[in-house]
Specification:
Layout lengths: L1 H12 L2 H8 L1 H6 L22 H4 L12 H5 L3 H22 L1
Length: 99
């Protein structure tokens, strides 16, 4: 809970970094959006009408990338992994900087 609160407070006070990360072309291409569950209402301590309420409702700030068996067996898979890791590096770095 303390880590999640720190992330939410950072997004609430300055959403620019998170919005740039999740709006980056590489991020959108690899993940589309953040993954995981969200709250149905505003998290405790945040107003329901906060401009970034949809970002604040996340229970986790994570991404998922599903791959098929064929993709994993493809000789180019290591390069595909590298592309995915690069696309999520900004999110990981940002989240870690807040903790």
């Amino acid at each position: 809970p303390p880590a999640l609160l720190a992330i939410r407070r950072a997004i609430a006070s300055d959403p620019g970094p998170m919005k740039r990360i999740i709006g980056a072309p590489d991020f959108l291409r690899e993940f589309g959006t953040l993954a995981g569950e969200t709250l149905r209402t505003a998290p405790r301590g945040f107003p329901k009408d906060h401009p970034q309420i949809e970002l604040l409702k996340h229970k986790h700030y994570m991404v998922l990338k599903y791959v098929s068996d064929d993709e994993v067996l493809d000789p180019g898979y290591p390069l595909q992994c590298l592309s995915v890791f690069r696309a999520m590096a900004a999110l990981n770095g940002y989240i870690n900087s807040l903790l």
